[in-house]
Hints:
CATH 2.40.50.140; five-stranded mixed barrel; single chain; 2 domains
Amino acid sequence: MFDAYAHEVRQFAxxxxxxxxxxxxxxxxxxxxxxxxWVNTARGxxxxxxxxxxxxxxxxxxxxNLNQAQTALIVEDELLIVQGQCRDDxxxxxxxxxxxxxxxxxRARVQFAKHLRIxxxxxxxxxxxxxxxxxxxxxxxxxxxxxxxSSKGVPLLFALNDAHCQGAIRLGQQSRFWxxxxxxxxxxxxxxxxxxELVYREDAV
Length: 205
């Protein structure tokens, strides 16, 4: 199941679970959710789950202050991306990942992608209807850790590179979109003949 996401996910979460080690450095980990459960601790209830990326599984603890929308992302057999610290677990003798940020794939795209790059052909069959797609897949209001909402989305970059003309135009913040699978499919369909890809590293531009 993880294989379906591995190519994209490894662009922003390159570290496999099997390669994790005790560290205070923040890490980004992705895997399929297994064994979601609540446990009672001295500090109150704690939400736990295992993440499985086919290299290994790791017990993952989620912060007690997760809001309802974040908790709803932790679903059995679904992909989850977390950011936090991997530490030794003195109770189990293994490792535990303490998540501080919880994301599904669209939220991770917003967090890590630089832009959606649309490489236009020299003679495009048609121009994409940008306004319509932005209406259908607008940026979304996302609740932040500080309790405030902010508008989140991925910017658009149109590029042209042929024998006669080279250049790129990055649209402004008002032209960000929410990068669901449906939105990406719509951009690919609308940009017929163009190469459409999410760019996670500046050297990939």
